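re: ur msg from earlier - yeah i can do the fe (ii) ion complex, just paste it... oh wait u already did. ok heres what im feeding in:
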Amino acid sequence: MAVTVHTLSPALGAEIRGVDLSRPLDEAEVRGIYDAWLAHQVIVFRDQTMSDEDHIRFGNHMGKVGEYKRPKTMRSKALADYHESVMLVSNIREDGEPIGALPDGEMMFHTDTTYDQKPHKATTLYAIEIPSRGGETLFANQYMTYDALPAAIRERLDGCVAYNAYEFGTTIKTKERYDAPEMRSARHPVFLRHPETGRMALYVNELMTEQVEGLDEAESRRLLDEIFALQKRPEFLYEHRWRVGDLVMWDNRCTLHARRDFPREERRLLRRITVEDGAMPRAA
Ligand SMILES: [Fe+2]
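and the outut:
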């Protein structure tokens, strides 16, 4: 069956049909999927039945499955049964302990592994259990926000580097500065040239970016707040309403994502695998 691509919103996102991710993909399928992902930034496959191994194989088709960057001590007991690169995102609790990371509630806009000096290019998330309402993921197109920046801000921040920090488990940033022992940090350009498409994207985010270096604190705060407001504009977003069996893959170099709140008492379970930068897509 041929791979077909169906746009999901004017801003970004496409659904890919005609693919069964429970089996290895051929060269043409890998190329078609990868090109659609570069073009649409977020791709969605519906009604998939994927084991842990299927998910790992898909990650390796798209590059190389990413190493788990969080401290090993933060892996729950439930993860002992999974591949070492798997992270569960879940509010399900066993013996009072969440089996996965980021269990409850709303999560601010961010992109994954920005706290690391070598972030992973893609994140893939597979839906296993989904609450009856809430928990949607909002994706924001960072090519569009870069293009929409006022010229004065673009000139002021051209060539600037920002300091990004993350305290694992934080979903809403409440402090200007994080300095807990579990915190990781990295410096990245404010404007990133996408290494594959060549397009410029904004690469700061509300959850992890603390300051633009070389600017005084007040100016940095003012410019970042203006950018964070721009990044949330509805015309730059695609909102994904999860269904069991969805596999979603997004580009961490040109999108942000955020999570809406959902009922604490309802179960939510997704399996996450990241894909490392650099490798070309591969068929099995
Ligand atoms: Fe995330």
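cool cool. The pocket of fe (ii) ion is lined by residues 110, 112, 257 (CB under 6 Å). ping me if u need the other ligands too
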